[in-house]
Amino acid sequence: MRLRIVTPLCVVVDEDVGSVRAEDASGSFGIRPGHAPFLTALAVSIISWQARGVERFCAVRGGVLTVIGGTIAVAARDAVAGDDLATLDAQVLTRFQTDADDERMEHIETMRVQMHAIRQMISRLGQGADRGQFR
Length: 135
What we know:
CATH architecture: Sandwich
CATH topology: ATP Synthase, domain 1
Strand content: 35-45%
Shape: elongated
Structural class: alpha+beta
CATH superfamily: F0F1 ATP synthase delta/epsilon subunit, N-terminal
Number of helices: 1
């Protein structure tokens, strides 16, 4: 099987593998040769794989995983490959999770500003209707 992990900026992993483990919202799952076609959204997590008898790892900041034929393709927002699981788990996943939390807070704040603007427009439209301006 071929594993290919890409981000918008680069190809992080492109190699032949024997098996892959990843995680989506429903939990951890494995992929071995002959796997059925598959599509899933990945969580902020670590993908692991066996290649030439060595286990390797890649921390991903979400993304999409597809299995088609003998190819496992991962398109992630950000990804960092490494051989030291402890470092990836302790440093990279923490950074990815913090970034995701910050983005959620920014999104919430943006939604608040938009809702405030909509309330203002509705209020002004209501005032114009009261004075007979919108007939």
